[in-house]
From TrEMBL:
Residues 119-224 form the Metalloprotease TldD/E central domain. This is Metallopeptidase TldD-related protein. Residues 231-447 form the Metalloprotease TldD/E C-terminal domain. Pfam families: PmbA_TldD_1st, PmbA_TldD_2nd, PmbA_TldD_3rd. Residues 26-90 form the Metalloprotease TldD/E N-terminal domain. Coiled coil: none annotated. InterPro entries: Metalloprtase-TldD/E_C, Metalloprtase-TldD/E_cen_dom, Metalloprtase-TldD/E_N, PmbA, TldD/PmbA_N, TldD/PmbA_sf. Belongs to the peptidase U62 family.
């Protein structure tokens, strides 16, 4: 794996080769990852994985024609062949009047702030195994746990670099550490399964493996004796581990490409009251050690902290250069590059601002409702906002959790759900999308 500086230089070299081969403009993206993971089950070693990958991708432009190509061979001869093939592909491509590099006058230039994404310590395989064993042991020690799907611990590192023919060159590295465990409780047809996991750039930011394991065991045992829900309309409270998916649907609908295609349920809703007044959803790509922190985007534009939603209103769309041209707007620094091809849209670290009430206070006046801890399936229509997903969780009776329930569906429309959404005060900061417990009134429940 190359260092960030070496990766930046290699991407610049490929761009220069493309220009010499006849490209009017070009950009190159380098990405590399290495990871090691240990999985154990019932105290025995189940699997050891070590993976390494390295890839460079080139995008060239001939007028309004473009083509993308990639390779894992970084030798000079291979890069020359890559550039020549990309030019040939571009000549055969259709014209796209929205294609092109980001505006030159908007490019970001270093030096950039150190976001502390690299942990210099690298755990040994023995350490990873000990972490996985500790997590599983803690989960299996919870009364009522009868089996295990296994526990794993992993660590990895990566490098990303981008260079363009009109003046951008940058790269950075990052590391990752994670622990996960899944266990089974109960016997026969009454068995239940749940899990817990944590991920961070720095190993020191993880809770202890025992804490993660105990949480998995407690979650599993809490689901034993699961009953069924009756159908009806009632308040739904979403646990923080699933509430973030609601904001994920909002972000998808804010994508410039979805707006340009007129395939978003937020179409024509810019500046309108979507959430309750006072609601704020904030993006901060510069959070030190944040899972989605980055100083520049996949086109070389600066990333900035911004309100995605302010006082309950969507403030703007998430635009790469192509969608910005389609909408006659400016790109917003939200381009992402995953290997080759044109950029897509992504965001930095996001959080929904906490409200004043505790989760208990948020539920206190609910006579009959449901607390959702797991969502199943992908029943969300991004065009209409219609929402229907399988769920498991707990009944809420007279403001209290009253027992586990499963095999029911929660349904509504995202615009109506957002309008009825109330956040609690238990916001935590270790996910890519950080959301407290949220309550949504008036959802349809399909059960027995």
């Amino acid at each position: 794996m190359l260092s960030p500086d070496q990766a930046r230089d290699r991407a610049q070299d490929l761009v220069e080769r493309a220009r010499r081969a006849g490209a009017d403009a070009a950009d190159a993206v380098y990405g590399a990852n290495a990871s090691e993971g240990i999985q154990i089950r019932l105290g025995k070693l189940e699997d050891v994985e070590r993976s390494e990958s390295e890839h460079i991708a080139l995008r060239v432009f001939l007028g309004q024609r473009s083509a993308s190509i990639g390779s894992s061979d970084l030798s000079p001869q291979a890069l020359d062949e890559l550039a020549a093939r990309a030019i040939d592909m571009a000549r055969a491509a259709p014209e796209d009047r929205y294609a092109g590099l980001a505006p030159e006058d908007m490019l970001s230039h270093g030096p950039w702030q150190d976001l502390d994404l690299v942990d210099p310590s690298e755990p040994s395989p023995q350490t990873l195994r000990a972490m996985a064993e500790e997590a599983e042991d803690a989960a299996r020690a919870v009364a009522g746990i009868t089996n295990s799907d296994g526990a794993s611990a992993s660590a990895g590192s990566g490098v990303f670099a981008l260079a363009t023919s009109h003046g951008f060159a940058g790269g950075y590295g990052s590391t990752s550490h994670s622990v996960s465990v899944s266990v089974v409780g109960g016997e026969g047809a009454a068995k239940q399964r749940d899990h817990a996991w944590r991920s961070a750039h720095h190993g020191a930011d993880l809770p202890s493996p025992a804490e993660t394991g105990a949480l998995a065991g407690e979650r599993t045992v809490a689901r034993l004796g699961s009953g069924r829900m009756k159908s009806g309309t009632m308040p739904v409270v979403f646990d923080p581990r699933v509430a973030g998916s609601l904001i994920g649907h909002l972000i998808g609908a804010m994508s410039g490409s979805a707006i340009a295609r007129r395939s978003s349920f937020l179409l024509d809703k810019l500046g309108e009251q979507i959430f309750a007044p006072g609601t704020a959803i904030v993006e901060d790509p510069h959070t030190p050690r944040g899972l989605r922190s980055r100083m520049f985007d996949g086109e070389g534009l600066a990333t900035v902290k911004r309100d995605l939603v302010a006082d309950g209103k969507v403030t703007g769309w998430l635009l790469d250069s192509a969608s910005a041209r389609q909408l006659d707007m400016q790109p917003t620094g939200h381009a992402a590059r995953n290997g080759g091809g044109a950029p897509s849209v992504s965001v930095g670290n996001v959080h929904l601002a906490a409200g004043p009430l505790s989760p208990a206070e948020l539920m206190a006046d609910i006579k009959d409702g449901v607390y959702v801890t797991e969502l199943i399936g992908h029943g969300v229509n991004g065009v209409t906002g219609d929402y229907s997903r399988g769920a498991t969780g707990f009944r809420i009776v007279n403001g209290e959790l009253a027992g586990p329930v499963s095999e029911f569906t929660v349904a509504g429309n995202l615009l109506s759900m957002f309008a009825q959404l109330t956040p609690a005060n238990d916001l935590e900061w270790y996910r890519a999308i950080n959301v407290p417990t949220v309550r949504v009134d008036g959802m349809a429940i399909a059960g027995d």
